[in-house]
Specification:
Bound molecules: adenosine-5'-triphosphate
Helix content: 25-40%
CATH topology of the largest domain: Rossmann fold
InterPro entries: AAA+_ATPase, ABC_transporter-like_ATP-bd, ABC_transporter-like_CS, ABC_transpr_LolD-like, Cell_div_FtsE, P-loop_NTPase
Main location: membrane
Radius of gyration: 18 Å
GO molecular function: ATP binding; ATP hydrolysis activity; transmembrane transporter activity
Distance between the termini: 30 Å
Structural class: alpha/beta
Organism: Actinomadura rubrobrunea
Strand order of the largest sheet: 6-7-8-3-9-10
Oligomer: single chain
CATH architecture of the largest domain: 3-Layer(aba) Sandwich
Strand content: 15-25%
CATH class of the largest domain: Alpha Beta
Order of helices and strands: EEEHEEHEHHHEHEHEE
Subunit structure: Homodimer. Forms a membrane-associated complex with FtsX.
Number of helices: 7
CATH superfamily of the largest domain: P-loop containing nucleotide triphosphate hydrolases
């Protein structure tokens, strides 16, 4: 589903590569924790999957397509098939839960009847049943992140990218958020989650890809956050 083939990324005016010679193959339906210190290249890895950045060397393939060869006009179509969740939720403050999730479908022209049917289903899936009419400021941080996940997933993307999704949430609530991501993964969506949250990584034992100075230093199935000796 996602293949990094000897990928090096050097940003303009930087001499140190953000990623160097990265080879990672992520298959459909996998769940990956991407870990590593600040500045190790995790966000760059995610941005390359979205074609927000281009590799300096090497190739990134997503769903069988070499992104170096994907025309610019096809990039919006690629991004529509990839849901994104961020540390800071990024909800629309003047829209309620239903409207925030519905908006993701309205902008891609889905019919009203379809929206009315699928939004409540996804709101329930993320554990917000009965809260569809709440405004973001009436929700806890964990609940706001659930809305953001619902919005990212409502279009049934093939891939969900999550950049520090539990970064602003207390540990107990983070477990609930992680369970929602796990549930989404079980529907067949490939999930790549960049995180510093050792407790979560250790509790869920998924595949762990660790970056250090832009290099993959560990790729371990059912891994833990720190190196297990
Ligand atoms: N747009 C940019 N222009 C120049 N350098 C950048 C840019 N984005 C990232 N970098 C550099 O690339 C390296 C990797 O950064 P990246 O944001 O991918 O790391 P990260 O692992 O996601 O860090 P964090 O955990 O702090 O989010 C860092 O040295 C960073 O300074």
């Amino acid at each position: 589903m996602i293949h990094f083939d000897n990928v090096t990324k050097v940003y303009k005016n930087q001499n140190r590569p953000a990623l160097q010679h990265v080879n990672v193959a992520i298959e459909k339906g996998e769940f990956i924790f991407l870990v590593g210190p600040s500045g190790s290249g995790k966000s760059t890895f995610l941005r390359l999957i979205l074609k927000e950045e281009r590799p300096t060397q090497g190739h990134v393939h997503v769903a069988g397509k070499d992104l170096n060869r994907l025309s610019n006009w096809k990039v919006p179509h690629l991004r529509r098939r990839i849901g994104c969740v961020f540390q800071d939720f990024r909800l629309l403050p003047n829209k309620n839960v239903f409207e925030n999730v519905a908006f993701a479908l309205e902008v891609i022209g889905k019919p009203r009847r379809f929206i009315q049917k699928v939004v409540p289903e996804v709101v329930d899936l993320v554990g917000l049943e009965g809260k569809a009419h709440r405004m973001p400021h009436e929700l806890s941080g964990g609940e706001q992140q659930r809305v953001a996940i619902a919005r990212a997933f409502v279009n049934r993307p093939m891939i969900l990218l999550a950049d520090e999704p539990t970064g602003n949430i207390d540990p107990a609530t983070s477990i609930g958020i992680m369970k929602v991501l796990d549930r989404i993964n079980r529907t067949g969506t490939t999930v790549v989650m960049a995180t510093h949250d050792a407790a979560i990584v250790d509790a869920f034992r998924k595949r762990v890809v660790e970056l250090e100075d832009g290099r993959v230093v560990r790729d371990q199935s059912r891994g833990v956050y720190g190196q297990a000796y």
